[in-house]
Design brief:
single chain, 362 residues, alpha+beta, Butyryl-Coa Dehydrogenase, subunit A, domain 1, Butyryl-CoA Dehydrogenase, subunit A, domain 2, Butyryl-CoA Dehydrogenase, subunit A, domain 3, 3 domains, seven-stranded mixed sheet, two-stranded antiparallel ribbon, 9 strands, 50% helix, globular, AcylCoA_DH/ox_N, Acyl-CoA dehydrogenase
């Protein structure tokens, strides 16, 4: 289970780019120079035709830099959902646009009440969606909403234009300001059906997104360890660096052990998904649970060991602390993923819903 030299080159290129650019400039260059949006998109749609390992390499660097780009929402979550849908002119066109970095998309799937679609029996008929989807990632800047909604035959996915009549967007003020979200409401909004096999597509998208998110969490945790070790080597008390005190050494060692344990599980999930393992969701849930808790613990220790400076608005430590807590609840909290694994390890009890926001719409 080893990454190849080209993965190291990809990581290095992304890190150099993010060291010089952020925000919209970084996203544009990630598309133009790295081809990041199309890494996991097949070549017939204008992508690079790679897989989970390349996505993992990019996500780890994005987490290390706390980059504010829509890679997770558009290039992972929405793109994987589109790839799971049946071929259609609309799907194929959007995949090309996303792969080339010409547009971004997001998946509106979290449960809050009910979002229902009404229309004909096939994808050629115009449908209309009514309901609400909360906490949609990067909704304010997306060019396409992929919306999960209930139909008479079960959950389905629809393509909705953000400026369509009946769409109302309410931006949230999240704990993690580097990851914008918004609540999106639909009132008989015109929608184009993409698939009526929504449960299967959403389950696969959840596996891919959870796996990718663990890479971001490992990258963020690694940055916390790096800056805390550096600070402990320069901050002095009683005439000596605090890193020379045994108690601080032990805490730094614990941070490193937690990081490497999380990294191992994250990489195992990536290799499982990349190999096409049918049980990749098991590795994804195990990694998501462990990496979420490791990042939170490591970010908390970074704050503690930096002292008062670690909670100031200007310091990077508090931003990682917020990202750690925000990402822990994204795509299912650690507890939800552990409940998912109960049947796998032979424990009896109520299994978690397959969807982190509750049962899939039906």
């Amino acid at each position: 289970m080893r990454f190849r030299p080209e993965h190291a080159e990809l990581r290095a290129g992304v890190r150099r780019l993010l060291a010089r650019h952020d925000g919209g400039a970084a996203w544009r260059l990630l598309a133009e120079q790295v081809g990041a949006p199309g890494l996991a998109v097949p070549e017939r749609f204008g992508g690079a035709g790679f897989g989970a390992l390349e996505v993992h390499a990019v996500m780890e660097e994005l987490g290390h830099a706390l980059a504010e780009v829509p890679f997770l929402s558009s290039s992972v979550l929405a793109t994987q959902a589109l790839l799971g849908c049946e071929a259609s002119p609309a799907r194929d066109t959007w995949l090309r646009r996303l792969a080339e970095g010409q547009a971004t998309a997001t998946l509106a799937w979290e449960e809050d009440g009910r979002a229902a679609g009404e229309g004909g029996a096939d994808a050629s008929t115009c449908w209309r969606i009514t309901g609400r989807r909360p906490r949609v990632l990067d909704a304010a800047t997306a060019d396409l909403f992929i919306v999960a909604a209930a139909t008479g035959d079960g959950p389905a996915l629809f393509a909705v234009a953000p400026d369509a009549e009946g769409v109302t967007l309410t931006e949230r003020v999240p704990l993690d300001l580097t990851r914008p979200r918004a609540d999106v409401a639909f009132d008989r909004t015109e929608a184009l059906p993409l698939t009526f096999q929504g449960e299967r597509v959403l389950a696969d998208a959840l596996t891919a997104a959870s796996t990718a998110l663990t890479a971001e969490q490992v990258g963020g945790a690694a940055r916390c360890v790096e800056m805390t070790v550096a600070y402990a080597g320069t901050r002095e008390q009683f005439g000596r660096p605090i890193g020379s005190f045994q108690a601080v050494k032990h805490r730094l060692a614990d941070m490193y052990v937690a990081l490497e344990s999380a990294r191992s599980l994250s990489y195992a999930a990536a290799f499982s998904l990349d190999s096409g393992n049918a049980e990749a969701w098991v590795d994804a849930s195990a990694a998501k649970s462990a990496c979420s808790e490791a990042y939170r613990e490591i970010a908390g220790e970074a704050i503690q060991l930096h002292g008062g400076i670690g909670v100031t608005w200007e310091h990077e430590a508090q931003r990682h602390f917020k990202r750690a807590h925000g990402s822990a609840s994204l795509f299912g909290a650690p507890e939800w993923h552990r409940r998912r694994l109960e049947s796998v390890i032979g424990l009896e009890g109520g299994a978690a819903d397959r969807h982190p926001g509750g049962a899939l719409p039906s």
